[in-house]
Amino acid sequence: MGQRDADDRRPSGYNPRIRRSNSSNAHSSERRHVPFVDLGPASGAVKEQTLERIGRTIDRGDFANGEAVAEFEQRFADYCGLRHCVGVSSGLDALRVSLLASGIAAGDGVIVPASTFAATFEAVIQAGGSPIVVDIGDGDYNIDVDQTESAAAAGATHILPVHLYGQMADMQQLSRIADAHGLAIVEDACQAHGASRDGVRVGSAARATAFSFYPAKNLGAMGDAGALVTDDAELAAHARALREHGETGKYHHEYVGYTARLDTIQAIVLLEKLPLLDEWNGQRREAASFYEQSLSEIEGLRLPPVPDGSEPVWHLYVVRAPQPDLLAAFLAERGIQTARHYPQPPHLAPAYRTLGFAPGDFPIAEALAREALSLPLYPGISDAQLESVCGAVHDYFRVEAQRPAALRLG
Question: Which of 210, 193, 229 is nearest to 42 (CA)?
Fold first, then answer.
């Protein structure tokens, strides 16, 4: 095929540098189905080995605290470059147990970002703490460093940064603040398995770091699961007790605990998937690069910021548009699924009205909530699917540009 033929077939507005080997069937992009998440490729890669190991577990009967749990904990600790991993039953459990094991007391202030999933607020409140909410920064959508410093000076015991969408917060600056004010850092890395920034890897700058292994995460189980990692042996021992009724020995209950164990079956799944995590993160980065090169020149569409020195793992690829619901509907008509993360920031949710916040209190987080739309991105997404998404996004903004100004929304 000649260059002119290839250019004629490529949807208007594409950067020719992004074309890759399997994009030859992109002519029918408008009607190509693109799911928001497809777990099939990742699950298929480990299906046979996982079923074999589950069969052996059935034969042994070690369904709770089975040998796969300890094996995964060691391997995930090694992956994170830390000494201890404590497997638990969900990301929320990992956050709550991390806070409790780090010494939080009733009423202690925990600095949290206004833009996050509700589990961040839940964990603080369930651990007996009080959320001290600050806005996010416009340059990374993570907790604002200057506001965090002000909140630390006003009184707090913990900082709970969230590495939103797989983009790390500025842990160098947050560590400086924590050291200056004697605060403990507990990281919410539930979307950031394997991320780094300024040479700092997730988990290396905190007392404890919490991960979720919900199925759609970068490292996902086949059900609910989570873990915390730490270099603190005492904190790890406390967390192990809390996850199992507060026991430090059989029927010796040192703490009021929970039933929050990592299920053996889920540990098997995670063991099989962990060796593939870096490869899958690389595929996510390639897809994010595809989007960036394809969509960067669209007027009215804002792509996710990436600070210098940052290596996000792209759990989500979140763009911003004046009317994201209209863009989502336009894409849905073309068979492209999208999602909204998160249209209602927690500080404005009914569940947290007792915190006393009102619209306008955290303008950057609220603007992100109004404008955010997550595009399809997962390991195994094809160039043809990515072209379908990008072609449809270009079409939407082309239609909007032709609409009379008086009829445009936003």
Answer: 193
25-31's contacts with Cβ under 8 Å and 24+ in sequence apart are 25/384, 26/383, 26/384, 26/387, 26/388, 26/391, 29/384, 29/387, 29/388, 29/391, 29/392, 30/334, 30/388, 30/391, 30/392, 30/395, 31/334, 31/335
- Percent helix, strand, coil in the chain (nearest 5)? 45, 15, 40
User: What is the per-residue pLDDT across 37-54, written as a single tens digit (0 to 9) for each?
Assistant: 999 999 999 999 999 999
Question: pLDDT by residue (tens digit) across 364-390?
Answer: 999 999 999 999 999 999 999 999 999
Distance separating alpha carbons of residues 290 and 294, to the nearest angstrom:
6
How high is the pLDDT of residue 155?
84
What would the two tokens of residue 326 be?
């209209």
Residue 22 above 60 pLDDT?
Answer: no
What one-character DSSP code corresponds to residue 166? Answer: G
Q: Closest Cα to residue 25, out of 13, 38, 10?
A: 10
Q: Which among 243, 245, 295 is positioned nearest to 69, based on CA atoms?
A: 243
Contacts of 70 (CB under 8 A, 6+ apart): none
